[in-house]
């Protein structure tokens, strides 16, 4: 007898429950800011990707409202039929100018951008070499291609050189890496990775979801941070939902990349275009980050302070060098319990366990933003000290 839907759902949920991995997302009752209200409690918010405070920024809201009134609530079609508005193309020119690339295209999310770009570029007979800790969207995007897939050890330039030496291809060769790794907060050594890729005639593909708006001059990203401007053999992709405060994804690079994606990227071809209000907000975000250098200055000042104080308390932050600051608790139940206790102290910080992160390295991932005040961070640090000592993670 075949398994019923009810049986399958029960089996899967019980398995998650027994492993301490069943997730019940908390619900925000106000805008996603440094201080907000979650499940009825006023909290310091360390769980958001809202690096620059753009999710509820007045300039973004004003331009979103302006575009909404002029262009309506929706684009009305996919981009290739009747959904390309002049504001879409203006935003894409803005992104290309900002990123210092030959072209750019906006898609519907960072996740679907990886599916669309990798699917459009890679063919059977091509070779792709991917960092072992790359984001799930890269892994899923590569699964949809017929390219030969190899993995190199995390951020290990020598291992990348070895894999490329042992696996040649007459087709396209692509080295794929995150710019900033979302769970550990470390930065890919792009200066050395690109050099090895070029040695083997490979193109470098960088998912800069957590680097855009955070790394490089005026937040231009990890690629810009390492000096690879106007480089036709470096492709940049990412999301517009983190530092930029909205939703969507982008691909930027070679002058002809945009045209290929318009014709071949399936998420672009088969999804309705972005809503005008979203386009307006994203355009304003790009303007604002260049207008106000204090946004990034505050982000990095807060990051340095928070990390230093966590280290003084004795927490392991895994060597993170970006605003992503993991605090290690070991196994998932411990991280989830720490998250629950922190919430009780007025700090919203989410525990992450397997399969999001490897077994034995469950953690709470904190993201400091430009909006946090010193009082916000001190409140969070006091809560961490109390919870860490109660759970035996730190001494004292």
UniProtKB/TrEMBL annotation:
Gene3D superfamilies per record: Aspartate Aminotransferase, domain 1 (3.90.1150.10), Type I PLP-dependent aspartate aminotransferase-like (Major domain) (3.40.640.10)
InterPro entries noted in UniProt: Aminotrans_II_pyridoxalP_BS (IPR001917), Aminotransferase_I/II_large (IPR004839), AON_synthase_class-II (IPR050087), AONS_Archaea/Firmicutes (IPR010962), PyrdxlP-dep_Trfase (IPR015424), PyrdxlP-dep_Trfase_major (IPR015421), PyrdxlP-dep_Trfase_small (IPR015422)
EC number: 2.3.1.-
Matching PROSITE patterns: AA_TRANSFER_CLASS_2
Residue stretches making up the Aminotransferase class I/classII large domain: 42-383
Top-rank taxon: Bacteria
GO function term, MF aspect, one: acyltransferase activity
Pfam entry (one): Aminotran_1_2
Family label: Belongs to the class-II pyridoxal-phosphate-dependent aminotransferase family.
Protein name per Swiss-Prot or TrEMBL: BioF/Kbl family PLP-dependent acyltransferase
